[in-house]
Amino acid sequence: xxxxxxxxxxxxxxxxxxxxxxxxxxxxxxxxxxxxxxxxxxxxxxxxxxxxxxxxxxxxxxxxxxxxxxxxxxxxxxxxxxxxxxxxxxxxxxxxxxxxxxxxxxxxxxxxxxxxxxxxxxxxxxxxxxxxxxxxxxxxxxxxxxxxxxxxxxxxxxxxxxxxxxxxxxxxxxxxxxxxxxxxxxxxxxxxxxxxxxxxxxxxxxxxxxxxxxxxxxxxxxxxxxxxxxxxxxxxxxxxxxxxxxxxxxxxxxxxxxxxxxxxxxxxxxxxxxxxxxxxxxxxxxxxxxxxxxxxxxxxxxxxxxxxxxxxxxxxxxxxxxxxxxxxxxxxxxxxxxxxxxxxxxxxxxxxxxxxxxxxxxxxxxxxxxxxxxxxxxxxxxxxxxxxxxxxxxxxxxxxxxxxxxxxxxxxxxxxxxxxxxxxxxxxxxxxxxxxxxxxxxxxxxxxxxxxxxxxxxxxxxxxxxxxxxxxxxxxxxxxxxxxxxxxxxxxxxxxxxxxxxxxxxxxxxxxxxxxxxxxxxxxxxxxxxxxxxxxxxxxxxxxxxxxxxxxxxxxxxxxxxxxxxxxxxxxxxxxxxxxxxxxxxxxxxxxxxxxxxxxxxxxxxxxxxxxxxxxxxxxxxxxxxxxxxxxxxxxxxxxxxxxxxxxxxxxxxxxxxxxxxxxxxxxxxxxxxxxxxxxxxxxxxxxxxxxxxxxx
Length: 697
Fold this sequence. Notes:
Blueprint: H1 2-11, E1 32-33, E2 36-37, H2 39-116, H3 122-171, E3 179-186, H4 195-198, H5 205-241, H6 247-254, H7 273-289, H8 298-320, E4 323-326, E5 329-332, H9 341-344, H10 348-351, E6 355-360, E7 363-366, E8 378-383, H11 386-390, E9 394-395, H12 403-415, H13 420-468, E10 480-487, E11 490-491, E12 505-506, E13 509-520, H14 528-543, H15 554-561, H16 566-582, H17 588-602, E14 613-618, H18 621-626, H19 633-642, H20 650-657, E15 669-676, E16 682-688, H21 690-693
Parallel strand pairs: 7-9
Antiparallel strand pairs: 1-2, 3-10, 4-5, 6-7, 6-8, 10-13, 11-12, 13-14, 15-16
Helix pairs in contact: 2-3, 2-13, 2-15, 2-16, 2-17, 3-5, 5-13, 6-13, 7-8, 8-12, 12-13, 13-17, 15-16, 16-17
């Protein structure tokens, strides 16, 4: 019976576990009915979504406000590093200007020294030396002023780094939210070295003295060279430089010499005295070998014998003669041939026993030759012509030959210009003058070479001073900049304060960041100097200043542009300028000096300079902090807490965080130095500080 009742209860009603009575739903049935969502489920879903939405918006707002302070710190770090980058650019431009200006002055001086030894360029050479000295003096003044400017700027760099960062952070503040930040240069101290700027400068006294001595020696040498050239020209005119008769023309008319033995020269510059000597040798050999009596008369045969004797004598004299330079001296032993009987008496023609003699009844008799009809007696030993005048022999009554016949042979051809001897004598006299002038010139050349050597030594000493003093640009902040930023308390907007979500309250927040300088690969269009030139060209247009790359400053401009590889630029500039001077007629000393100066420049071994622009990039703050001298994160957190919120005065912020910056620039615009222009005037190298310093005003 109980079983039946029980089974009956299980099957009554609507299947509710509560039996036949209807009870409230419970569990998931509240949200799902007959496979569909209930009204309750829809309502709950909407409420949950709204709650989540408002919570998410509030969370996003909170996270955004918290992230803004990190953005501010990052921007502050980059702003601080940008100040260091600007200084590095300015320091590089200053060094480039000083170095290129010094080398420009030295190259100008070197070209002038070479020019002093080139007569056509001597006046311009003296002006070039003077200009080079002025440029070097300007370089020294510029270096001294730049040294003070860079030191002052470097001393203020930690302040400027922080001020630039503080200004940027303050600029991000709004009415609802304020930001305060600072950037600390790491390290705080400078390790820069500018020996070229801090030294005493290039001492020009040695160069001035050497150039003065060289100019005096070169001037005296030039006068001697003019005298030598004039004497040489007279000798050349007598030999082959005259449009009418000359040694060359007479030899061509009186002999059958080929052109190779009787050459012609159009200029005394290419002609040498040895040419005339060889011509005379060939001429007298030909006349000796081809001398014949014009007829069979005794008188003609006697005259032919006299001429033959003279030609033989002339051949011997010319063969023994020498002309040329040896051991620093010009030697000439070309003799003056006798031109009359009196002069014949002073030669071997009068004293040499070469004339036939015979024993005649009247006594020992001298003849013109063995075939003389008057030689009827026995042959005797040959006699000199002097025997006739000393009583040692008698004159042959048939040929009547004596010293007068031999003296007559050169007399006519020496007296008038249709004779070879006339022009030979003119050449020989001019050659004697030339020998004296040339030896004087050689003495002065030796002195000029010594002075050129001294000038080269002084040039080398100045060059070493310029080349050895390379800078080391290591300013405060060279390892990076650590930035600290904080923002004040903030409440979420009223729109987010609803029944679904309470208003969010954010407390004071802080962030740390760091930035360092990374090189931007240098190209011809993108480097430190191209950036400088861009601004300079704009200022040149505004102020009417002559541009660096053209006009009066071509040399300095080219060296400044080639500062990245100054060694190659210096050699190229020197080669080009010296080449122009040498093309005007440089002598051996000028070429020797130019070669020496070129060797000195080539031996410098100037390494290319890094002209890469430095750009700030964010970096791991922990690495920069490690090199800052601070204890680490604890110090940074303490500094963050110490930042006075709402303060825009960089000096006050520095004091609050315990960072001593020392002196700082108070001016709105700071001129590092005045770049002197060799052509006159100057260009101020200025850094604008008004934006940075304005943060504290």
